[in-house]
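G., the chain you wanted modeled:
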Amino acid sequence: MSRPSDLARSDDQPLKDILAGDHLGVLATLRRDGRPQLSDVSHQFDADPDTIRVSITEGRAKTANLRRDPRASLHVRPRSGGGYAVAEGIAQLSQTAADPTDVTVEALVDLYRTINGEHPDWDEYRMAMVKDRRIVLTILVDKIYGWAPQSD
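Predicted structure as tokens:
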């Protein structure tokens, strides 16, 4: 799917800084009736290219919503309270983690490291990702908006 070429406008940088600076946000997906389904999530934002990654679980409402309608939004408000950023885009879902050494689990390990650093027991983590039927949600961001306070 193509993405707008004007996404990387220079005035988006303060909003991208908010998305990248705090790993907690609210993911919005669309229920069958069109109402939003909101979920608190840990996320990772990568500005090159503009993508967001989230670990989600097979069988949850947000996963079913994204399989039916891949539009997604993530709202991030810095813990400092100054400003907010919203990233909108189209979701891509990985395969469900099926083996501790599969591609999905490797991506989940990378995501965990990016957000939290090193895990005390990677073997235990890998097994938990399979048991929990984890998936990597990747949002291909096509719009960013919000408000960032002016720096002095």
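The first strand starts at residue 24 and ends at 30.

Shout if anything looks off.
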